[in-house]
């Protein structure tokens, strides 16, 4: 069985994910992270957040797979407001660096527009 985090990130990669996210307003990734923050030790939670960032970076570096890159952008968009994902300044800096790397080599207008939000 696929892990919960992997399943949540894959949802962002499906066609129409941005529209569904806008319509539903669901924040499943943030809800998952918040629940894990309550249940895990500080050390285990740090490992989880590092894993989340690593997986998002893999999505963003998916080359020509626009849906996977868009999934990474949508995940960042959701995580930016999460209160439990570490120090806000560090989180914002790390997520901004990821978005910047996507913008640097993005040739898809929809992807660029989503990054700009």
How would you sum up this structure, described in words?
With 117 residues, the protein is mostly helical. It has one domain (4-116). Helices cover 75% and strands 0% of the residues. The chain has helices at residues 4-13, 17-24, 28-39, 42-60, 66-79, 88-104, 109-116. α1 (4-13) packs across α5 and α4 (42-60) runs antiparallel to α5. The termini are far apart. The mean pLDDT is 81.
Any idea what the shape is?
globular
Strand content: under 5%
Q: What's the total count of β strands? A: 0
The main β sheet shows up as:
none
SS field, number of helical segments: 7
Whole-number mean pLDDT: 81
**SSE order, one letter for each helix or strand:** HHHHHHH
Distance between the termini: 34 Å
Total domain count: 1
Query: Would you identify the regions where 5 or more consecutive residues have pLDDT less than 50?
Result: none
Residue share in helix: over 70%
